[in-house]
C-alpha cells in the first residue's frame, strides 16, 4: 500500500486549517496514496484556552473533519486525521484521532492516552491535562488488509502501548505529532526508529512543522520507518508538504521472524 503523510502548520482557525490541508491531501491522492495521514491537531492549534474552547465542536460537527470526509469520498481514499481537538459529550475537550473510510464514514476513533505535562529547560511549559481528557483504551483498525495501531505524539514515549498493539496484530503504527522543537531535535527520529524496531512494525509519523499563529514552534521532519528500523522516507524541513512511501506487509513478517522479540518475551518478578 502507498501511504501519504501530510506535513502542515495548522492555524488557529478551522477554516484556515482546512484550506491548508485540502491541496496537500489532493496532492497525496494524485501521487497514488491509498491512506493519507495528517498530523496531531490538524483542525486547530490554539494554546490559549479562552480562545480555543469557544471554537471547539463535537467531532461530527467539526468543519475540518467534515471537509476531510468530503475529500475521502471525492478522492476514494482513506484519511487518518492524526488528531482533531474536539468537544466531548460531557463538555470537556479531547485530542481525538479519526480514521475516515473512502465512503466518508468513520472507521475508528482514538483519544490520546498520555498527556504531555512538562516544564522544559527553555522555559516553555505544556499542561495538556488542564485542557484535554485522556483516553482509556488502545485502538486497532484495518485499512485494506493492513492492521493499523493508533497513537498520538506523546504516546510515542510509552513503548508498552506499541507492544500491546503489535501483539494484537498491528503491522503499522500511526504516530502523528506536534512535537516541540527542543524534544524533536533530540528525540524525534530515534524514538520513532525504536518503536519500529521493538515491534517489527512500520511507523508513519506525519508532523506539524514551523512557528504557528499561537506562538508555538513544532519540529516537522515527517517520516516513515520500516520494520527493521530503516528510514524509508523523510522530509528534512518544517514546511508544509507531502511524503509518499510504499508499505509491504511481508516486510513486517520478515522482521518479526528474524528477531522474534514479541514471541520471546517472558514474564518476570519485580526487583
Number of helices: 7
User: Total strand count, please?
Assistant: 16
Biggest sheet: strand arrangement:
5-4-3-2-1-16
What is the makeup of the main sheet? 6 strands, mixed
The portion of residues forming beta strands comes to 25-35%
Mean pLDDT: 96
Q: What gross morphology would you assign?
A: globular
Element order: H for helix, E for strand: EHEHHEEEEEEEHEHEEEEEEHH
Unreliable stretches covering 5 or more consecutive residues: none
What's the domain count?
1
Q: At the third CATH level, what is the topology name?
A: Nitrilase/N-carbamoyl-D-aminoacid amidohydrolase
Helix content: 25-40%
Task: Determine and state the CATH class.
Answer: Alpha Beta
Descriptors:
single chain; 271 residues; 16 strands; Nitrilase/N-carbamoyl-D-aminoacid amidohydrolase; 7 helices; 6-stranded mixed sheet; alpha/beta
Topology readout:
Elements: E1 2-7, H1 14-30, E2 35-37, H2 49-52, H3 63-75, E3 78-87, E4 93-100, E5 106-111, E6 117-119, E7 125-127, E8 140-143, E9 146-150, H4 159-167, E10 172-174, H5 181-199, E11 202-205, E12 209-211, E13 217-219, E14 223-225, E15 231-234, E16 241-246, H6 249-258, H7 261-264
Parallel strand pairs: 1-2, 2-3, 9-10, 10-11
Antiparallel strand pairs: 1-16, 3-4, 4-5, 6-7, 8-9, 11-14, 12-13, 14-15
Helix pairs in contact: 1-3
Structural notes for this entry:
- The chain has one domain (2-263): Carbon-nitrogen hydrolase (Nitrilase/N-carbamoyl-D-aminoacid amidohydrolase), CATH 3.60.110.
- Helix 1 runs parallel beside helix 3 (63-75).
- The protein is built from 7 helices and 16 strands.
- Helix content is 28%, strand content 27%.
- A hairpin with a 5-residue loop joins strand 6 and strand 7 (125-127).
- It starts with a strand and ends in a 7-residue tail after the last helix.
- The strands form 4 sheets. The chain has a 6-stranded mixed sheet with strand order 5-4-3-2-1-16. A 6-stranded mixed sheet has the order 8-9-10-11-14-15, covered by helices on one side. The protein has a two-stranded antiparallel ribbon with strand order 6-7.
- It has 271 residues and is of the alpha/beta class.
